[in-house]
User: Fold this.
Amino acid sequence: MSTPNKDLDKVEVRIKWDPSAAGEAANDLDIIAGAYTADEPFGSPAYLVHFDSRSPDGTITLDRDSRTGQGFGFDEVMTLELDRLSETYSRVVVGVAIQQRDGRKTFGEVENTAVEVREGYATLFEDDFSTVPTATAAVVAEFARDAAGAWELRAAVRGFDADPEAFAAAMGGRAG
Assistant:
């Protein structure tokens, strides 16, 4: 799905989900962002931002990290200050991965999942992962510079069957 949202400055990607049932392994979803250079827009990411990290220049930050989904509202929030990102970068791809350390778990097995992309008070995109129930990870947004240098959002949910590490390596590839 394409969106007409252009010339974005500062956006948030937020996810939420319900905790696992008592006695089951915790549902642990993570937001992962990869920044790609203009020289290699579909190659390996120049850097990744995920739990316990931020971009080298401080323009992409994970503001809230949850390992269980417990709490009210959105459990994880990542801020992307696209207007401050160096012109070296032409794409930022954002995805969500389910930790697989306690056995394989898919979006269809995690209750009440949701992702939301916002700029200020405006919701640019939202989804519930229902189109990728058998996936263990998904790309949820791609921010790309146009020819004039303005950032635009290409929002779509694209599922992967991969652990977080393999997903992070593959998430920025061309959609097939």
User: Anything to note?
Assistant: The helical segments are 164-170.
